[in-house]
TrEMBL record:
Signal peptide: none
Domain annotation RING-type: ranges: 1-159
Protein name as annotated: RBR-type E3 ubiquitin transferase
Keywords annotated in UniProt: Metal-binding, Repeat, Transferase, Ubl conjugation pathway, Zinc, Zinc-finger
Organism in which the protein naturally occurs: Euroglyphus maynei (Mayne's house dust mite)
Source lineage: Eukaryota, Metazoa, Ecdysozoa, Arthropoda, Chelicerata
Pfam families: IBR, IBR_1
Enzyme Commission code: 2.3.2.31
InterPro entries: E3_UB_ligase_RBR, IBR_dom, TRIAD_supradom
Record's keyword annotation contains Cell division: no
A GO BP entry: protein ubiquitination
Length: 159
């Protein structure tokens, strides 16, 4: 829902527009439900995607644990993440962001590097031919098959 939009549509008009698509109306209904929950500072939907139960805080919202009465899932009422005491919400959000960055780095390393077959050092191929030389142990090998380059070179000569 766009909160900047000032246009008000009556419920029966929306129902008329969505009457050919039950799925579209259910999606609209869910958005209205979520917005109505968000309007109350002491209410929040359970963060378990399969639950969708409304959790009501007994005190004013603060970084504290609440437990869903339906699925027994505990979470931080203030930020809506898994419960993270004694860490405050700002710190945990920074931590999640750093973990996501680290995950992207790990994905890049897995996709663009290989281990030297001799010493296990991490090797990155940054262009050129497939003949690699390990910086750590000076072992020469083929990037594609990790075999010794000397044998590959001799095989090409004698074949």
């Amino acid at each position: 829902m766009n909160t900047d939009c000032q246009l008000f549509l009556p419920e029966d008009f929306v129902h008329f527009i969505c009457q050919k698509s039950v799925l579209l109306y259910e999606k609209y209904d869910l958005l209205i439900f979520r917005e109505s929950i968000d309007a109350y500072v002491r209410m929040r939907l359970c963060i378990n995607s399969e639950c969708q139960t409304v959790v009501i805080a007994q005190e004013q919202p603060s970084p504290k644990r609440v437990t869903c009465t339906n699925c027994n899932n505990s979470f931080c009422f203030k930020c809506g993440n898994d419960y993270h005491a004694p860490t405050d919400c700002k710190t945990i959000l920074l931590w999640y962001r750093k973990c996501a960055d680290d995950s992207e780095t790990a994905h890049y390393i897995r996709a663009h590097t290989k281990l030297c077959p001799n010493c296990g050092s991490c090797i990155e191929k940054n262009g050129g031919c497939n003949h690699m030389s390990c910086y750590s142990c000076k072992h020469e090998f083929c990037w594609i098959c990790l075999g010794l380059c000397v044998f590959i070179f001799l095989k090409k000569i004698f074949d």
